[in-house]
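User: Hey, quick favor. My workstation is busy. Could you predict this chain's structure for me?
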Amino acid sequence: MRWKLRIPLILLTMGLTSKLYQLFIGNGSFFNSLLYIFLTGGVIFILERTGINNQKVHFSFGVLIIFVGIMVDYFSQ
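Assistant: No problem, here it is.
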């Protein structure tokens, strides 16, 4: 079964940027929240424009990408 990388890469991007936000930026101000949204949206925009999201991979590899995004966000310090 083949799956486009769109959803796994979006979830990976959200996990990675969330962890980076928590480590370097996160003090809870409105500007920093806006910065997180624009950073996440910018990375997703770049992935869309380069066509990486249209690549098809095996379903298990897509699940692995999602799992990595979740693990980076929740279990790294």
